[in-house]
Design goal:
mainly alpha, two-stranded antiparallel sheet, 2 strands
């Protein structure tokens, strides 16, 4: 399923790897595909999922059907604020604001 991995524990069992490589989810290519001048809603509509369907919601639905719902998001509108991204050093304020906007929009779809 592209960017999904497991960790083998010392007892031989496996657990899901923490999330990683979510750049497209935050419209990270601001130089080409998702310029900062493009409205966030347009950027989100332009993101394509991989590999078996180009719509993220369909991939999530398929995974939930096969494996159940294991991902719990403890993010609410109340705790989405600029301080959430304080540890993201090296990113401009414009990119951090875009990330917060995307979180707010996508939270409504979760």
């Amino acid at each position: 399923m592209h960017n999904v991995a497991v960790i083998r524990k010392t007892d031989g069992t496996y657990r899901l790897m923490p999330l990683f490589d979510n750049g497209a989810a935050f419209c990270s290519d601001t130089t080409k595909d998702y310029p900062l001048t493009m409205p966030v809603n347009t950027c989100i509509r332009n993101v394509k999922a991989k590999p078996f369907n180009t719509i993220f919601k369909k991939q999530v639905a398929a995974c939930r059907e096969l494996y159940g719902s294991h991902l719990k998001v403890e993010l609410t509108e109340q705790n989405i604020n600029p301080r959430l991204l304080d540890s993201f050093t090296g990113y401009s304020d414009a990119i951090k604001i875009r990330m917060l906007d995307i979180l707010r929009i996508q939270l409504k779809n979760f």
